[in-house]
Amino acid sequence: MRTVASEMWDAATIQAFVAKTVDAILKRRAVPFENVQTPRLDIAVPAFEAMRYCHLRNEIAALIAASMDNRSANDLHPSFVEILRQLTSDEVALLGTMPVGEGVVAMGHIHETLGQGRTRIIHRNVIPPRHARACQTRACIPAYIDNLLRLKLLDVPPGLEIGESAPYQAILCNKFCEPLFKGRGRQGTYRLERSLVSVTDLGQRFRLACLVS
Question: Measured between alpha carbons, how far is 54 from 8 in angstroms, rounded to an integer?
Answer without folding.
Answer: 9
